[in-house]
Design goal:
Blueprint (H helix, E strand, L loop, with lengths): L1 H20 L28 H22 L9 H8 L4 H14 L8 H10 L1 H8 L1
Length: 134
């Protein structure tokens, strides 16, 4: 299973490199300042572009895969990473994005709910979300 995760990390880094290379060089003195992006949450998710959503999810998954590779499936310290990686194993970024999209569409009153919380309680531990509702 470690080799699959390693291959996934390598593949995602290979995809990230061309995207990074496509970014413009340092701005010239006459260039307009770049608007800082807000920290994305449920309020921003529905209006984000597909590329922004995928980039956000890729960042979360890359962080998790790196930590998982460093600590292994049985880390010394308490972490949620192993469960996150194992629960989402085999899912595509698009499937994760579509799940988050569907959640916010079905729950417009939950726009304040953070994206990672939606992923956790809808995909990683949905049984805990259901028991909390009952």
């Amino acid at each position: 299973k470690k080799s699959v995760l390693t291959l996934g990390l390598i593949a995602s880094l290979a995809v990230w490199t061309p995207i990074q290379a496509a970014e413009p060089a340092a701005p010239s003195a006459s260039a307009k300042p770049v608007k800082e992006l807000p920290f994305p949450g449920g309020k921003e998710w529905p209006t984000a572009t597909e590329r922004e959503k995928m980039a956000y999810l890729l960042g979360i998954l890359n962080m998790a895969l790196v930590e998982y590779q460093l600590t292994g499936p049985n880390p010394k310290h308490r972490t949620t990473v192993a469960k996150l990686v194992e629960s989402l194993d085999g899912m595509t970024l698009r499937q994760i994005m579509e799940t988050v999209d569907a959640y916010y569409q079905a729950n417009p009153d939950q726009q304040q709910r953070p994206i990672l919380e939606v992923i956790w309680f809808e995909m990683v531990e949905p049984e805990k979300a259901n028991s909390a509702k009952n």
